[in-house]
Write a structure and sequence with these properties.
mainly alpha, Tetracycline Repressor, domain 2
């Protein structure tokens, strides 16, 4: 997805539903679930609030549909990247670029996933993702091979993956805290997040040097 592209879902039956979905995505990106208002979504969609409630009875169900559409579109791309026949270093670079771009455009998704896992720890993937979740076995093997060949320092593949994910996700999830603690304006924070991809990649590769 580029910066202007919106997620779509085959569950939507007509153009009004799609307009509502697009408007909800825009509002959720800006304000998250708690800050979003149904009236604001209706205004963005160009409909009245009663019609919005006719199509989607609650804000929570609409939020779930939007988040699921983003996740269902992203997971196959993640799986394809993880299984791709490319060097480990290139794979890490592309994963960082893809993941930070994705969550920067959809900052509500990590919090949605965390909330759903806490509510439904055993049924999360069945409830949210119809297909099987990405499996990192190929990535793990590449890390183990790179360690054995002396190209990177000894490290657990699982810890490496969690380190990469954490460095990508945390600044997005913690945006309000970063603004306060670091005294950043919205413009400064946006610039900080744009710089994040190169910083994460540089830090990871420096940490992996043998």
């Amino acid at each position: 997805m580029d910066n202007t592209e919106k997620p779509t879902t085959p569950e939507l039956a007509d153009s009004t539903e799609q307009r509502i979905f697009d408007a909800a995505h825009q509002v959720f990106v800006q304000k998250g679930l708690d800050g979003a208002k149904m009236q604001e979504i209706a205004d963005h969609a160009g409909i009245n609030k009663a019609l919005l409630h006719y199509y989607f009875r609650t804000k929570e169900k609409l939020f779930e549909m939007v988040a699921k559409a983003v996740i269902n579109r992203a997971f196959p791309a993640v799986q394809q990247l993880i299984e791709a026949d490319m060097p480990l270093e290139q794979k890490i670079e592309r994963f960082v670029d893809f993941y930070i771009d994705l969550i920067s455009r959809n900052p509500f998704v990590p919090l949605f996933i965390i909330g759903e896992i806490n509510k439904h720890p055993d049924q999360f993937f069945e409830k949210i993702i119809p297909a099987a979740p990405p499996r990192p076995e190929r990535f793990f093997r590449q890390v183990e091979e790179a360690v054995a060949e002396g190209r990177i320092r000894p490290i657990s593949p699982r810890h490496l993956l969690v380190n990469v994910l954490s460095m990508c996700v945390f600044p997005i999830v913690a945006r309000p805290m970063l603004r306060i603690v670091m005294g950043m304006s919205s413009q400064e924070l946006n610039l900080f997040l744009k710089e994040r991809k190169e910083e994460v990649k540089s830090f990871i590769f420096a940490a992996l040097r043998p």
